Amino acid sequence: MKNVLSLAILLLLSVFNSGILFAQKTTEIQYLSGTGKDDTVEWDFFCSDGMQSGKWSKIPVPSCWELQGFGNYNYGRDYKDGKQYYDEHGLYKHTFQVPSQWKTKKVKIVFEGVMTDCEVNINGKLAGEIHQGAFYEFKYDISKLLKYGEENLLEVKVNKMSANASINSAERNADFWIFGGIYRPVYLEVLPQQFMERVAIDAQANGTVTADVYTNSKKATSIVAKLFDLKGKLVQEFPEAEVEKHEGKLSFKAKATNIKTWNPEKPNLYQLQISLLDKKGKELHTVSERIGFRTVEIRESDGIYVNGQPIKFKGVNRHSFHPKSGRTTSKELSIEHVKMMKDMNMNAVRMSHYPPDTHFLEACDSLGLFVLDELCTWHVPYLDTKVGKKLIKELVTRDVNHPSILMWDNGNESGWNTELDDEFAKWDIQKREVIHPWNVFKKTNTMHYPDYYKFAFDSPSKDKIYFPTEFLHGLYDGGHGAGLDDYWKQMWNMPLAAGGFLWDFADEGVVRMDKGGIIDTDGNHGADGIVGPYGEKEASYFTIKEIWSPIYIADRYIREDFSGTFKVENRYHFTDLDECSMTAKWVNFNGPEGGTDFGMMSESNVELPKLAPLEKGTFSIDKPTNWKSADALFLKATDIHGKEIFTWSYPVKMAKQVNTDKIKYSKKGSITTTTSNNFIIINADENQFKFSAKTGVLKEVTKKGKLIPIKEGPILLGNKTELEDVKIKSSDDKVEITAWFKKRKKYHDWDGNHEMTQDFFKWTIHPNGILDLHVEIRNQKIVEEYIGISFSFTEEEVKGMKWLGDGPYRVWSNRMKGTQFKVWENDYNNTITGQPGFVYPEFKGFFSNLYWMKLNGKNNNGFTVYCHSDLTFLRMLTPEQPSDPGKGAAVTKFPQGDLSFVKNIPAMGTKFMPAEQSGPQGSSKKYFGNTDEPIVVELTFQF
Predict the structure, then answer these.
(1) Reduced to 3 states, what is the DSSP secondary structure of residue 916?
(2) What's 722-767 look like in SS3?
(3) DSSP string, 573-600
(4) For position 239, what pLDDT does the model report?
(5) Environment class of residue 543 by beta-carbon count within 10 Å: exposed (0-12), middle (13-18) or buried (19+)?
(6) Taking a C-beta distance cutoff of 8 angstroms, is the pair 900, 717 a contact?
(7) Domains in the chain: boundaries
(8) How confident is the model at residue 395, as a pLDDT?
(9) What is the rounded distance in angstroms from the CA atom of residue 871 to the CA atom of residue 212?
(10) How do residues 313-349 score in pLDDT, each as one tens digit?
(11) If DSSP codes are grouped into helix, strand and coil, which group holds residue 367?
(12) What CATH class is the domain 205-291?
């Protein structure tokens, strides 16, 4: 008896270890490959051409073979440049075992994605027709081809290019990297003999649930359904569900009660369990699908509504991509990308330009993003309508149940075979609408890359719902955040605008195994992300985060009469403002010799008003009795999930107030002045300053005999007249050097009278070596040139800088948001945004709202400069610009010299338009107002 019991236990353990239950009624999955880029299984592999070709070796599956050192690289646009298109093929072999118990099951082999034509053989026999199309899941019933309880041989031939010319035109001749290989997982799907092929579900916001259960089972007569929450708790049974039987499917309709709807702000999900029953009520097969209750409407000449709320898409385009693995990704990477999008306060993502991995859609479902799912074409449609229909079926039947998907895209940018528009609805129980990205089609206008001064005002389509599925094409440091503030003001306030989608999420830079592992973006084709290939955050990341904050706080400044009140707007669609939280912190900063942390003066919770979505109001913060002694105020908003929405910063003191107690003037020490060889030489304490006697310009600084290479300044930027005179005034406690420029006419009065103005700068040298500079420039109301002053400093001597001001990222005049006012410290780098090695923040460029800056030298002590003039920009060196910036993704004109203190800065354009076309903030002309008051720059240098 003991032996029999032991044998029974062993058999039972064997069954459990093989993953099989005798009474299995659910679907079992057995992976033959790994599950993603970080979990792979080695198969035998042979590549026909290129790297490591002509011999059998091993390759991890899933993978793109180029990233494993096989074959050849191609960017999809290579055909336009006359480059060779490689057409290698790969042969795969893999052995696997299946238990003998599976003889009573239905076994299918599933390929989630293969590039591109795929021939599958099991034990030497063809599993089915060759699959064509690189981005679509397909499967074969191999039940009759398997050897049960024995070893089986899987052989797969993959052609990188398709034998179907229409597929190559639609998805291979594209503006993205093209790869070869079994790049998504492969697994066996084990089903009971009587099974459901698939289930399509429509769960509406009012609780109505409709489902189509597709089955060829002749025994199936009915179905039962149960609703569970994600913790497995039963929410509701549907004993009264209406069930209808049709050819090849069973349908049911029921009503769920007391459910929570799905939306990106509150992505509530459920599990719908469906069981297929025979006429005796015996369970034949049970599946569980994750669903969300939501309703999508595109109301003509009105807007896009979800659950009855009008939507503004704050979206981005996203490729399925990783630099080390190409199109082979992972669940972890999908979650990481969705979290980054959510962190930027985005609520939508467009699949560009193909359906993604299922785990990305699952992340959008669970974390909350609207999705536009897309059939893969780029400029050229599937002219082969038959294959187009097949691929649409594969696309929709795989993705139909995701609540995040709102619409289907029939290709991209002229890639629309209009004969395919109605195909989506054949497979979509929800009847989601189809759009044509980059086109006016039915209810929508999705035209790409609109000029700010034209967009959405096309008179033939002004009654269409406008949402560009691509706009502000990011390239290098252009686009994305640059121009977004202007565009978003228009989009938010236009009744028929439904937001839009930036191009695009990440730089598509691939590791080149054939070029020593460099990252290649194919010039300017792939260098267009908000983040780098590995997710490195560019400045626009934070600009977008602020502009798209669902809590919109009107811009304001804190002055002596600050009331403590802020104007606020709730830009959520489904969340009341008082569901969020906010804290107010009054802080003080360290000086140049201290750290980058800050001291807390006071912290309090802010009571946000109860504002429904889209409502406006105000909130007030507590002002401690000593609030005026704070350097800055931080307001941090947190959403209902505990995630930071944004932290706004407001300087409390003016620059001169902050700097006063940091500069220690002293009459101690001696100060001497000599003039020789056209130089004014002043010795003060341990410092020696050499000025030009002709121009008053600083020529040289030494401290303890060691050169500090700041010189050739101030150069007056915007000055219109010639130098007239240089005067020296000496006393026991200071020396003043003043350079006067010739007087000129200020303006022409109505009565013909003229007022004369005069620009000048004045140095004041103190006995302890402190150097003050006062500059006054009088100019016209509207200027295009820089206004301010400039110096030279040897770039090779720069080690880094610490500063109090906005940071840590540089700014352009049309990308001012996303920074914070505090003490920052950056090491020197020579980064060109979007090019290897993707080091951010960039060291060089313009930095706003400077209070003080300590420049750290390599072979010198550097210096500290205090800026007493509010709203002044620091220009730190001259950033290198890319060689192929398109029409506007570079700035070519910088002030002369290396270090500048200016009152105006340039804007940055995009790949497809100069900055001037992206809105008022992009204008090269800056309005300085009336000229009654001069432009003043006041600095103090401490060496």
Answers:
(1) helix
(2) CEEEEEEEECCCCEEEEEEECCEEEEECCCCCEEEECCEEEEEECC
(3) SS--GGGSEEEEEEEEE--TTS-S-EEE
(4) 86
(5) buried
(6) yes
(7) 25-191, 205-291, 296-465+489-498, 551-645, 671-942
(8) 98
(9) 63
(10) 999 999 999 999 999 999 999 999 999 999 999 999 9
(11) helix
(12) mainly beta
Alpha-carbon gap, residue 871 to 903, rounded angstroms: 7
Contact, 292 vs 270, CB < 8 A? yes
d(CA 746, CA 736): 27
CATH number 2.60.120.260 given to 25-191: yes
In terms of Cα–Cα distance, which of 431, 464, 430, 433 is closest to 450? Answer: 464
Please enumerate in sequence order all residues whose Cβ is within 8 A of that of 901, keeping only pairs 6 or more positions apart, or say none.
Answer: 788, 789, 790, 850, 867, 869, 872, 873, 874, 875, 937, 939
One-character DSSP codes across 546-573? HHT-SEEE------TT--SEEEEEE--S
Kindly list the distances between the CA atom of residue 921 and the CA atoms of 481, 905, 926, in Å, as whole numbers in the listed order: 12, 11, 9
Q: Identify the pLDDT of residue 926.
A: 85
Determine the topology of domain 551-645 in CATH: Immunoglobulin-like (2.60.40)
Q: Could you identify the residue written with the tokens 């103190």?
A: 766
First to last CA, the chain: 95
Task: Please give the distance of CA 736 from its chain centroid, rounded to a whole number.
Answer: 52
Taking the C-alpha atoms of residue 936 and residue 934, their distance in angstroms, rounded to an integer, is 6
Tokens coding 91: 């042969």
109/472 Cα distance (integer angstroms): 43
Per-residue pLDDT averaged across 407-412, rounded? Answer: 97
Instruction: Out of 3.20.20.10, 2.70.98.10, 3.50.50.60, 3.90.470.10, select the CATH number for domain 671-942.
Output: 2.70.98.10
Residues with Cβ < 8 Å from 749, sequence gap 6 or more?
A: 755
**pLDDT tens, 703-743?**
999 999 999 999 999 998 999 999 999 998 999 999 999 99
Task: At 281, list the tokens.
Answer: 């009520």
**Listed residue (802, 342, 356) closest to 541, CA to CA:** 342
> CA-CA distance, 870 to 937, in Å (whole number)?
9
Q: Which amino acid is at 786?
A: Y
CA 319, 323, 329, 334 dihedral sign is: negative
CATH architecture assigned to 296-465+489-498: Alpha-Beta Barrel (3.20)
Q: How far apart are CA 545 and CA 342, in angstroms?
A: 9
Query: Which pTM does this prediction carry?
Result: 0.95
SS (H, E, C) 803-855: EEEEECCCEECCECCCCEEEEEEEECCCCCCCCCCCCCCCCCEEECCCCEEEE
Q: Quick one: average pLDDT of 456-462?
A: 77
Report the SS3 class of residue 100: helix
With beta carbons less than 8 A apart as the criterion, state whether 77 and 525 touch.
yes
Matching fold, domains 25-191 and 551-645 = no
R_g of the chain, CA atoms, integer Å:
33
pLDDT band at 747 (very low <50, low <70, confident <90, very high): low
261 DSSP 8-state letter = B
**Closest by alpha carbon to 359, among 20, 38, 32?**
38
Please determine, for residue 636, whether its predicted confidence score (pLDDT) is greater than 80. Answer: yes
pLDDT at 753: 58
The alpha carbon of residue 767 and the mean position of all alpha carbons in its chain are separated, in whole angstroms, by 52
Task: Give the model confidence (pLDDT) of 766-782 as tens digits.
Answer: 999 999 999 999 877 78
